[in-house]
Amino acid sequence: MDPKKSKDRPFYELPENVQASSRIIQDARTSLRTVVTKRPFTPRDEKRTLFPASTARNPESRPASAFSLNSRHFDGNDSRPVSGTKLSPLDHLPEGSDVRARAEIKTPRAPTAAEIETAILAPKPPADPNRPLSRKGSRQKLYNATSVDGGGETTSSVRPRSGSTDGRLLHESGSPDREVPRRVNSGPKERTLLPEERGMADGKEAAPRVSSSMGVSSPPRTGGSHDGEQRVGSGSSRKSSSAGKTRSGSAGKRDSIDIGDDNFYTDKVAPLIDEMSALGKNKDNEKLGELAEDLYIVLDTNKKLTKSYKQRSSILKAIFKLLDVEEPRVMLKLARLILAFKVGGNNLLNVCKLVFKVSRNEKNDQEFLEGNVLDLLIETIRSSDHVASCEALIYCVGAVKFLTGNPTILKRLAKKECIETLAGLMHNIEKTNRDNGRVNDQFGHILVQLCAALRNLADVGSGRERFLQTGVIESLSHLLDAYPNDCDLVLYISRIFSKVTLHTDCCTVLANQHSCYKSFIHLLNRHVNKEDVVVRVCFVLGNITAKNDDARKRLFQETNAMSTLLSVLKTFHNMESQKRSNPENVTTNGRHTNSDGDGAINTIDDVLIKVVRVIANLSINDSVGPVIASHVECVQLLLAILDSKDIGSSEELILNTVATINNLSYYTTKTSAITAHQNTVAQVLLKLVMTDNMEAMLEASRVFGNLTRQRTVRDLLSKQKVDEIMITLLDSGNRELVFIACGVLINFMADEDKRPLLKKEGGIKKLTEVLRDFGREDWQLGSVVCKVLCNYSTKITSTNSCFGEAEAQDLVDVLVEYLDRETALEASLREEVDEDFKDYLCETWEADFCPVASQLLKRIETYQSSFEPLEAPG
């Protein structure tokens, strides 16, 4: 290169094949960068409650978190019709009885057991003495007719002994007009005419019959038991069809099964129930818990824990009577039996409340690790109808939510596919809402518990993979769109997203949900004063825009996206100003937001950090960045934050804000607000360069590397001795800081009046030492050092006068050594060095270092002479 043609040209105006100084900051370490921040702090719930303490739910419309619960709340008669419609009474009653007389008076009172007993214990002799006195299966019906259910209690006036002949003929009608007493709570089946009645209706003489109330011996029952034909749990009216089968002649097979069940009940179950009932009265909780465990094992081993077991109703009613105990361990064991029988309706609701009540106390967590209570809870969630059993599911899922707060139980629930079960329930609720064309607010109560549980389950090792496999992230995104007004639900979903979006795969899934951007912007607008929601939504937006350029464009293109972000930024900056003016009275959401030395979290600062991070990440996109850089209000807000904050108390906020300004300062468009206010920006950043905070100095220097492309900025900073500070930073030992300082000095050396300072402050020697110390490991840094010296020596006439004799010789020695490939790459060519790193070093040496170093060496050698030029006469 001809020195006469190149000596007057600044280094940044060199040909395109040599990197110009205006592009230095675009290099790897000075290019646009995403901003990193920690996840928002989530305080641990002090108490286990159904809804968070800050809930905005109306107390009158939400389920109660505290309630009283005892045996009276359980329904012993669980065989009513599903519709709940009261059946009309039959118009025939036993003649000659007090019941008939009372019916004629039309009193609404139900007949007592004694009255029914009177009616049925005075039968006429049979018309045919040779007719059998009993029919198979009738004795149980007799017992049904002698039972009255009132509030879950059954009073029996007849207790036949097993095998007793006296109990085989308790009621029999010999005349065709004699009516059979109807069983209490009977269903439509029992209104069907008997054969002899049908005969009378046809005008034929009916054969003598035996009352259907006659029965064979049944197993002994406890005082609180109910007939074995009724089915407890579904809330429906479903009777045993044994009578019908007897009439059709198919009772033989059923009898053999019934006899086996009766023997099992008599021998195995009834003694345990009787003993449990006695212990319940004596309040012997320890022994009662043991017997409840024994009863469960007996029933489970013999596969009797089913809805079809004949004595299910009797067992459940006996258990219900024991639920006045206060011992959590016993309560849970009894609840385990009830859940295993798959009850429904009111009983399902109350047993879920019972489990919820036990799970509210952390001290009871150990009890849930025994037996299979966790399995039963998960199965209840999986099998229950979310429409019919909505309230029961609220408490059941709420109990699971509490239990996921225990690390040991949390891992066990994850292994039992709790995530998959909750995901299935969430999908079903989504489908129901979609099919109905509207959302059900009651489902929102379930979803709050569900999402709170998923928030904890996201922390388990396999949680993220399970979320991805079951489509949890997509469903949560849809729920945000469906329930934007439910603050509790929005909070828990944002907490889940703030956890899972720390991982790239989850970010990708969420970013591909195109509706999520609109939902997030809507949430920020609607909940702008709720920092616990805003801080997490902004954190999630920062995560999905950190590595996904398509997400940056989608978010920015969303209607009112930028104005919403700036509105949030302005709102919380104003809150901060109010806090400074009156720090004792300012609270948000009932929490003081000061940042003291006691470790308190400044939530306002946390929100500002997250919003600023989103803006920084958006500005990386080459089409979005220039638009944001031209937004005057955005730049003014960023500068206001820097001007009002101190690096000592708000370090992360200051660093993120400066990084955002650095990204925006990269775009030098005519409409850039940074360029229009460049002197103001420089003035604000000066205080950071003067601090002892190395990170703050580094970030401010990055911005100066962009701003000093303008002569006016260089003049301003030179007056503030920033160029001198940059020379001093060459001794810092921090490679990145040295790199940025060199980038700023490149621009300063473009001005001839600022070049002498470099030599005066020992900058030539410092740059040579930097090259010697870091060049072999960092050829990019070596290239920047050479660029500073090239710009400095643009008008060189003598090497010695320009650099100094000793400094020039040292510089030549280093350049000659480093331009020799074998010598320069000796360390990188060793076998133990990683192959990728070796290729990187070779590439940067050849592409970045050699062109500039060769030019500098040639210039030094060209003007190296023992003769000193004479200065022009004055």
Number of strands: 4
Sketch the major β-sheet.
Answer: 2 strands, antiparallel
- Please work out how many helical segments DSSP would assign: 42
Approximately what portion of the residues adopt beta-strand conformation?
Answer: under 5%
- Which quaternary structure do these chains form? single chain
Using brief descriptors, characterize the structure shown.
single chain; 874 residues; mainly alpha; two-stranded antiparallel sheet; two-stranded antiparallel ribbon; 42 helices; 4 strands; elongated; disordered N terminus
Task: Summarize this structure briefly.
The chain has 874 residues and is an all-alpha fold. The model is unreliable at 1-30, 79-86, 96-108, 113-124, 126-249 and 585-600 (pLDDT under 50).
Describe what you observe in this structure.
This protein is mostly helical. It has 42 helices and 4 strands. Among the domains are: about 1-10 and about 745-874, no CATH class; about 100-260, no CATH class. The strands form 2 sheets. Strands 1-2 form a two-stranded antiparallel sheet. Strands 3-4 form a two-stranded antiparallel ribbon. The longest helix is centred in the first third of the chain and has 32 residues, at about 250-280. The protein is elongated. Residues about 1-30, about 80-85, about 95-110, about 115-125, about 125-250 and about 585-600 have low confidence and may be disordered.
